[in-house]
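Weekly structure sync - notes
Attendees: PM, LS, DV (DV joined late)
Agenda: review two folding runs queued last week.

Item 1: First target. Sequence and structure tokens pasted below for the record.
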Amino acid sequence: MKIGLVLSSTPAYSETFFNSKIKGLQKNGFEVVLFVNSKDTHFDLCTVKEQVKFRSFFIVVFFLKSLGLLLTKLSTLLKFISLERKRNVSFISILKKLILNQHILQESNIDWLHFGFATQTIGRENLAKALGAKMAVSLRGFDIGIYPLKNPKCYDLLWESIDKLHVISNDLLNLAYDNGFKKNVPYQKITPAIDTSFFINQSLNNSSNNNQLQLMTIGRLHWKKDYTSVIMALKNLKDRGLDFKYTIIGDGPEEEKLKYLVYDLGLINNIIFTGKISQNEILIYFKKSHFYLQYSLQEGFCNAVLEAQSMGILPIVSNAEGLSENVLNNKTGWVIQKNSPKLLANKIVEVSNLPESNKEKIRKQAIERVLKEFNVEKQQKEFIDFYTL
């Protein structure tokens, strides 16, 4: 069986979700082709077909080259044009789609064309059918939780074309139904997974020897992560006299705003911004942290929360989408209402004051659950089932 995966770029080393999926499929005899807009020359897990780069001053050469490649797949070309015309797409728009998707349309014998994010399907709803393949789509979070708010009915054509849906949480499935996904179309929930051999039991007992509370978060500095509420909660804790250090790992568009907020609230000595760092460097922060905070406004699932639990770090998360499935409230961590700095501050104090035996019970339950439910081998088997059942 041949699977075509559509992504914006080749997965980075740290993107275990896609990398483990590709490895699992190949291990079980599947052929995998990756279709991307841009590729990293170091990526070598599977065949990669890159979208041709458009250069306006070479437009004639570009057009002729694209047309020549597509004419080698004349039946696919004609089928795609026919499907687009049935939806009253103009010939100019069809021509643009043919050129931009030629790296996909010239591929042969694809059984499944799987789009890694729903937003990547817009304007490409007919590609799979033109190739004679089935169409699968993954919902990851932003694509179904936020994008349709700005673009109502953006997936109407997708819901007419899709053969199977992949979701990473039940909340995202419900959002899909709210946005028009049809109940007679099959779906499968396959959660993210982590390399448990790398994380599990690295540090069951926190290695920080002083009484200062160590907290951390990994993620892009983006509004949907709601670092502002976390910082406001920590200001509350400082006003109560709590001694803490909070490490934020990652970069992003809100860096300047957040750093100014930290300065303005007098938290410079309490909050550290590391920027983007390596996995081994992240491991150092994991080993010395007591609590992991993920107080997002919107979150598909979050691998970093799984990694934290696997190392015995107590998670406090918001109830945004998949986080309430990632962490089981009062069993493997704590799930609280999002967008309430005071509530978050109170929960941090409450958990800090728990007897050590209670904390240890939570840690062990979290580790056991991650080992059982979120290991790579389980995820790989589920993707085999996704394409064959």
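Item 2: Second target, run right after the first with the same settings.
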Amino acid sequence: MSRFLIRDPRELFLRPTRRTVLQGAGALAGATALGLGTGASMAQDNVLNILTWPGHGDPAFVKPFEDEYGVKVVAKEYVGGEPMLALMNQSPPGSFDVVLADAEYIGMLQDGGFIDALDPADYPLADYWPEFQKFPLHWVGDELYSVMIRFGYLGLAYRTDMLAPEDVTSYEALWNEKVKGKVGFFDWYLPTMGCLSLYDGNASPFDIDDTAYEKLSETLFSLRPQTSGFYSMADQFAMLTNGTAAVIPGIGDWVVLLLQNEGVPVDAVVPEQGGIQWTESMSIVSSSIKKDLAKKFIQYASSPEGQFRSARLPAYWASIPNKKGWEMMNAEAPEDAVKLRHTFDARNVMDEYKEGKIHIRQTPVQQDIETWNDTWSEFKAM
């Protein structure tokens, strides 16, 4: 018997829609009710399984939790929201206890019945910056479904030996003759197209009508002569390092900070048109049989120590929403607090948010996900 209703699993991996996610979830729930999921029956009591972006299973982050509770955290890694949805949809019930997802996909996970509602009182939201205490993509009405763990801003990442600061005040830098053939792209449609939508003047970059979307497609296609390539998460680090890419839109400090630590001449900027916020959020998977342990893990990840460690993951650094995590960083690693702009006595990472320059990343509102994905695929094939 099939666990899910999608005839070809690649359909969800490549072009998921709300309908296909819900179909898969319905079948998954049915399998759970019938006791058909082998993941739960084979789960080990001393293992917490998480589905996550790369790096969150690193001992630098999880070891204190493992030591305290005598468990092993096992991470299944993915890159991009659509692969995450595919893995949630196609895996046997009980395969994962916690999912770390981009916030724009929490609504789909909730609609599909993949994640549980949370009790806000269980988590230190009062210690978060006020702007993040009731983060809109985490709530459905008065119910909380996810807890913010990390965030960052997306604009332009560039090599400082190829472009000067005055060259990157606008996304217009992408068409600069200095970087012809050296504009790289992280191979995921959402970050780049969101930034280009801001360049087109859309106040809500992911909520645009069809006329604005046609203009966005034209803007994207006009960059093809500038393009050096389309890169995986790992490749974009390498391409900025060796100079194959002089500038990459739709990424930011999460790439640049690690490269700067290695001495690579790079920097990141939120241009005058604004930037996009990415947000990594943790939820308890509905089919988990270790929900209490899953809750404890999210409590740890959102605690001051968990936040301090999460901000400096070896895979990639990020901003954190818990102010007490900021305090710990300033006390124990003040140089890193400066690099992350997590200081209290100078301009910090929250200022751009408060100034209205940052727009929360979402999935498309007036078009389907596959429409944007198809446009991206057409751009790559040109």
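Discussion on item 2: Residues 18-34 form the longest helix (17 residues).
Action: LS to circulate a short write-up before next sync.
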